[in-house]
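Hello,

Our lab assistant flagged a job as stuck in the queue for most of the afternoon. It eventually completed. Since we weren't sure the result was trustworthy after the delay, we are filing this so someone can double-check. Below is the sequence as submitted and the structure that was eventually returned. Let us know if re-running is recommended.
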Amino acid sequence: MPTASPEPISPRSPRVSAARRLAKRNFRGKERLFLAEGPQAVREAAGHKDTLVELFATIEAAERYADIVGEAREAGARVHLAAEDVVADISTTVTPQGLVGICRFVDTPFEEILAARPRLVAVLANVRDPGNAGTVLRCADAAGAEAVVLTDASVDLYNPKAVRASVGSLFHLPVAVGVPVEQAVQGLRDAGVRILAADGAGTDDLDDELDRGTMGGPTAWVFGNEAWGLPEETRALADAVVRVPIHGKAESLNLATAAAVCLYASARAQRASGGCRSVTDNQ
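-- returned structure --
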């Protein structure tokens, strides 16, 4: 156990009831709090300033992840020691890992993202599956994107499945939510960002874009709904509609895979043109 032991909590505690309610979107929005489950998410939340409010941990998890529990306490979170069934009741997973954090919302105003002059952005337009949204966020983080924008027709960023699928990336880069797609596109364009719509029926081929050397500048990729892609009015907003080439016999790529391909293509093009900062630049 950590030197400073967590506080035991009753299953009938109002804190447990309040945490359990955060599985529902309306309560998350009202309280501006969400659940972060598992050691990776809790660790990242503890490292994100003023984010982790409370942590519920089983005895086994508190012993196994004593370092994370310590980081949570150092971050100012109130740590509760709870029975396994209590943590399982708060958790939204089938096999809870014994740690459930309560976090403050971390989304960033869209205006702040624009003011930072981002070079690589993922825009999720009408993406409805929380697992896909979280996975695209994770891909954007891995590719070095500087922001993600969820339009007003997209899934709730703080859906527990979306948070889990991001595997901590939610705490790594700015994410704006609830932005109308027209506003997102126009704002990014005004900030000097080229808008590329990813669509399987696109007129431009990703390989051709790379060969022409047109992807080295600031770029925002717009990704559409999992089932029907981007509507014509959204495609019309883009500077180009780009398809990922299918060289084999696969019918298509799923959203997250296509997003990873597109974002990494941009990241490589920006690196080649000297437009992508090195991790050693600020050292």
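-- support follow-up --
The delay was a queue issue, not a problem with the job. The result is valid. Residues 275-283 have pLDDT under 50 and may be disordered. Residues 55 and 220 are 36 Å apart (CA to CA).
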